[in-house]
Design goal:
The protein is α/β, with parallel strands linked by helices. It has 11 helices and 12 strands. Strand 11 (271-273) and strand 12 form a beta hairpin. The radius of gyration is 19 Å and the shape is globular. This is GTP 3',8-cyclase. Pfam families: Mob_synth_C (PF06463), Radical_SAM (PF04055).
Length: 334
């Protein structure tokens, strides 16, 4: 059996995103409905020990990088214990965390000591009222305190994820760009994706990322392509001349990066998702404890991975070739 994590399109996979919970302390408009969410009972969520067994099985296949996601991963107790166990697995070189940042001020030092190497923080607005609207109740000042704690703890790079939405936060592009001039943050503007969202709402708010470079021109600043921060993934990176940080553009719709995709996803309830957008899932829970069976399941999922996600066809109202996921972003792990 060929045990390389190379799909039929020649893409090498060395990156596993692991969701540890489908629960969150916020209700961001692009990630989770305001009400009516049905969360998985604890009995259906993978234990830390089960997650570790899965990673031990796939690390020999070439998985080197992990990202811990949710929901909000910091709502799950004892996360630092999981990080410590994962960092001790042979072959794992990098463990990053995606978080909304609300609890970071309390956990930054502990996460750093456990083995988290990088953090990505969602920050869709710097304005308190607007941030509260997008997150349905969040306090942006807690996030900013969390960023300060991360810098004191020595995290580098620190990336800020901004889902850009027409008529919502596109008026803050200039302020966010100026933030990279003053602070060593790496801001990544991300196109709004049609996952778990009602089509009309998404189409109305979708905004191509050309607007970011247009804002640079309007500001009269020179933004040149540059090498991104470590783990920059699909972002096209730029630096404003003299800036302390960088900004990146992640455009899964207007210019998809499927051709270089290197990631698989493990949901909190134990499903491998080969692609974020499509409905295909492969449950691994019954195979935990059997390394060969776990590896075979990952190879089966990889073999089913399509060449592209076709989100641009969704925007155009065209017929899709496959079934779209019915899960929200918070249930998948982003």
């Amino acid at each position: 059996m060929d045990t390389r994590l190379v799909d039929k399109h020649g893409r090498v996979h060395d990156y596993l995103r692991i969701s540890v919970t489908d629960r969150c302390n916020l209700r961001c408009v692009y990630c989770m409905p305001e009400e009516g969410m049905r969360f998985e009972p604890d009995s259906r969520i993978l234990s830390y020990e089960e997650i570790v067994e899965v990673v031990r099985a796939v690390a020999p296949l070439g998985i080197k990088k992990l990202r811990i996601t949710g929901g909000e991963p910091l709502v799950r107790k004892g996360l630092d214990k999981l990080i410590a166990m994962l960092s001790g697995i042979d072959g794992i070189e990098d463990i990053a965390l995606s978080t909304n940042g609300i609890y970071l001020a309390s956990f930054a030092d502990r996460l750093r000591e456990a083995g988290i190497t990088r953090v990505n923080v969602s920050l869709d607005s710097l304005k308190p009222d607007k941030y509260a609207m997008i997150t349905r109740g969040g306090d942006v000042n807690k996030v900013l305190r969390g960023l300060d704690a991360c810098r004191r703890a020595g995290f580098d790079p620190i990336k800020l994820n901004v889902v850009l939405m027409r008529g919502v936060n596109d008026d803050e592009i200039e302020q966010l760009l100026r933030m990279t001039c003053e602070e060593p943050y790496h801001i990544r503007f991300i196109e709004y994706m049609p996952i778990g969202n009602e089509d009309k709402r998404w189409k109305d708010a979708y905004l191509p990322l050309d607007s970011v470079l247009e804002t640079c021109r309007r500001m009269g600043v020179i933004a040149s392509p540059c090498e991104g921060a470590y783990g920059n993934g699909p972002a096209q990176s730029y630096r404003i001349r003299g800036a302390a940080g960088t900004f990146g553009l992640i455009h899964p719709i207007s210019d998809h990066f499927c051709g270089s995709c290197n990631r698989l996803r493990l949901t909190a309830d134990g499903n491998i998702k080969p692609c974020l957008y499509w409905s295909d899932e492969y449950n691994v829970r019954k195979h935990i404890g059997n390394v060969n069976a776990l590896q075979s399941m990952f190879l089966q999922a990889l073999d089913a991975k399509p060449e592209t996600h076709e989100m641009a066809r969704t925007l155009a109202g065209e017929k899709l070739s496959r079934s779209v996921t019915g899960r929200s972003m918070s249930q998948i792990g982003g």
